[in-house]
Predict the structure.
Amino acid sequence: MILSRIIHHLKTQNWTAVGLEFVIVIAGVVIGFQVTAWNQAREGEARGQAYLERIQSDLAVDIASYDDRIAFWSAVSDHGVQALEASNDPDRISGTQADWALIVAFFQASQVSEFNAVQTTYTEITSAGELGLIANLNVRERLSVYYTLTENFTMTERPAYRVTVRGIIPVRLQLYIWENCWDSDFYGRQFLIACDPPADSGEIMRTANVLAGNTELHNQLRYWISTLQVLQTMGRDRRGEAGDIREAIAADRGAEL
């Protein structure tokens, strides 16, 4: 339609009309580009907001996991301290209950609970090259640092103590502890449970004496207790940062947590 009009105006040498037709065409193209760019910007902003909402959920899972791990690492450390104190007590009283408590303390002190951040959404954003959709530069940089620092060997360490002590305690007693003194749930949370000793008091006494007298085992346990303290400190720091980032995202989105 427009093309036919331009041809007609050219034939009649109506240059003013030709110029107006060209202006109309160019204006239409420019407006079309602007509308397309505006729609793309709106779609990008919507995707960015959806990413942030999902990251908020991921961070909430991380916070709950940190709370669980910090409490668990503290409980494991307490068992380690209890085992060392009982072993180094010159007046330690040997008996089925006391010896069993010593064995359980040494065993539970070998427990580990690794932490791995939920990175599904952040990995998806970076893999798609869409990190720029998170417009808030402060939030974007803090997320980058947060997810970089979560990859730390200490958070997944399995100490030499774990191997040593489980190589000393008889298998039958270990299986009894797993069955009666420990539990876990679908979410990977672990629970250390007080339990009565099995029937064989002779095996309990022999094992307790070996554990109480093993200096190298005690040295490895001291190292592990120290590491557990570092884990708790790191966990609290990172849990705090995850909470702060969630609040920053909520403020940026104008949404409540």
Q: What stands out?
A: The chain is about 75% helix and 0% strand. Residues 107 and 165 are 7 Å apart (CA to CA).
